[in-house]
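On clarity, I found the account of how folds are encoded harder to follow than it need be. Since the whole study asks how a given chain folds, the encoding of that fold should be made plain. For illustration, here is how one protein appears when written out as sequence plus structure tokens:

:::
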Amino acid sequence: MQIHRVTSDEWDLWRDLRLEALACDPGGFGSTLAREQAFTEDYWRESVGRGLKLVALAPGPAGLVGAFADSVGLQLYSMWVRDTHRGRGVGEALVKTVLEWAAEHGWKVVRLRVYDHNLPARRLYERLGFTKAAEPEFMEFQVS
């Protein structure tokens, strides 16, 4: 498996996998398939150019994760792994790559939102060192 950083020229790789994630697991994200299907190519290109966008290739696309900076730290978002690749370390590899990138770029905190009912994701994040944050449904990782 390879973790690939998506470039703005590969916007359609990110878009296609993101739309698949929204279609397969509609309750797992803070957006909807219909909303994001309406986004233009320009939107997707610009979106991919902001922050960090990673896709796991095993050898085809198997999962994705993004990260962007805000006033609190680095926000991990859009984490998703295809059903066919779950339980094979894809999610762990994606999150670890974000954490490594955060450390390399001087981030002190990586935060994410995970719904309370998403127990597999919560277990993954806890296993990797994330703890509950002050806000409900948020977790954070202290980068060393």
About this structure: The longest strand covers residues 61-69. The longest helix spans residues 90-104.
